[in-house]
Design goal:
The model has no long low-confidence stretch (mean pLDDT 95). The protein has two domains: 212 residues, HUPs (Rossmann fold, 3-Layer(aba) Sandwich), CATH 3.40.50; 89 residues, Tyrosyl-Transfer RNA Synthetase (Orthogonal Bundle). The two termini are 35 Å apart. The protein is built from 13 helices and five strands. The protein is mainly alpha-helical and 330 residues long. The structure holds adenosine monophosphate and tryptophan (TRP). Adenosine monophosphate binds next to helix 1. Belongs to the class-I aminoacyl-tRNA synthetase family. Its EC number is 6.1.1.2.
Length: 330
């Protein structure tokens, strides 16, 4: 049985990218009876400014979202990152074997800091990958299911695990990323050159969890395609259409070839209609579950309390070994 670990930041609106890129796979791995832990990355969220009350709300929103997508607290550990103090401590220890060069090369850091003067960039934003490595390594994780934007961070996690093991002796499992072929990078509906993101200025570019069925249908019908009017999967020349086919494949669990075979010869209209109906149906279903869970704050807190007990138990064991290896125990 493999250990599976992943997290999402409670930093705002939830979108279909989170579901298709990450949580959809969590559910599959959970059903395969892996030992799963899924957490709320609130320590990561504060690497950019967050309003106190909103951070609390968004953290509970995310727990409700996990449950609504089928993550089952009876089978899986769901917890808040800040409820396990070991994350911050291991991040510190790992940062001591991490170079500034490695941190500077991370594309997410470059993206998130590009509009800020270098002197003003928060150190937490730069250190973020060391915290992420700590999250993963604390639980002796085998598999990390994420969207493809996280690949570089996981490679760095692997490097740190190998470096630590070589320096101090075998301590950490070296984790593997789990990134699906389709749906691991859903692009913006109006601009298929950039990632679909809930923080996009133009709300037509993303599908949010709280979007109504009608709004989702409208957004998909006006999504950018091309004027070739030839139904092919061609990410080079028909990026917009390829993105919609990816969306279809991820939602329906079908492969790209059979979708193309079904729609080839026709225009894009019917395909878009079918896609819109499928996506809106799935989102509405998740949203209805979400609202039900979100009303019961006491239950969400109970799930987190139990999750924190499980997670602390595992993290205690790993950190005791780390202390011993590094020489922090006398
Ligand atoms: P974040 O909001 O950055 O914490 O992202 C949470 C998870 O959702 C990560 O595994 C991301 O890779 C994934 N994700 C976010 N946006 C997308 C997207 N547009 N396509 C695929 N996966 C995504
Ligand atoms: N960096 C991830 C993101 O932005 C969130 C995250 C933090 C994470 N720690 C993690 C994902 C550990 C997987 C494993 O999406």
């Amino acid at each position: 049985m493999s250990r599976v670990f992943s997290m999402i930041q409670p930093s705002g609106r939830l979108g279909i990218g989170h579901y298709l890129g990450a949580i959809r796979h969590w559910e599959v791995l959970q059903a395969q009876e892996h030992d799963c832990l899924f957490a709320i990355a609130n320590l990561h969220a504060i690497t950019v400014p967050q309003a106190t009350a909103e951070l609390k709300q968004h953290s509970l929103d995310l727990v409700a979202f996990y449950l609504a997508c089928g993550i089952d607290p009876e089978q899986t550990t769901i917890f808040m990152q800040s409820d396990v103090k070991h994350h911050a401590e291991l991040a510190w220890i790992l940062s001591c074997i991490t170079s500034l060069g490695e941190l500077n090369r991370m594309t997410q850091f470059k993206d998130k800091s590009q509009n800020t003067k270098r002197e003003r960039i928060g150190a937490g934003l730069l250190f973020y990958p060391a915290l992420m490595a700590a999250d993963i390594l604390l639980y002796q994780t085998n598999l990390v299911p994420v969207g493809s934007d996280q690949k570089q961070h996981i490679e760095m996690t692997r490097d740190l695990a190998i470096r630590f093991n070589q320096t101090f002796g075998e301590t950490f499992v070296v984790p593997e990323p789990y990134i699906a072929d389709t749906g691991s990078r859903i692009m913006a509906l109006g601009d298929p050159m950039k990632k679909m993101s809930k923080s996009d200025q133009d709300s037509n570019n993303y599908i949010a969890l709280e979007d109504s069925g009608r709004l989702i249908q409208k957004k998909i019908m006006r999504a950018v395609t091309d004027s070739l009017n030839s139904f092919c999967y061609n990410p080079e020349q028909q990026k917009g259409l390829a993105n919609l086919i990816d969306l279809y494949a991820a939602c329906s669990h079908e492969d790209v070839e059979s979708i193309v075979a079904r729609y080839s010869g026709g225009g894009y209209g019917q395909f878009k209609k079918d896609l819109a109906q499928m996506v809106s149906g799935r989102v509405e279903e998740i949203y209805a579950n979400y609202e039900r869970y979100r009303r019961d704050t006491a239950y969400l807190k109970e799930v987190l309390a139990q999750g924190a007990i499980n997670a602390n138990g595992i993290a205690d064991q790993t950190l005791a070994v780390v202390h011993e290896r590094v020489g922090l125990l006398l």
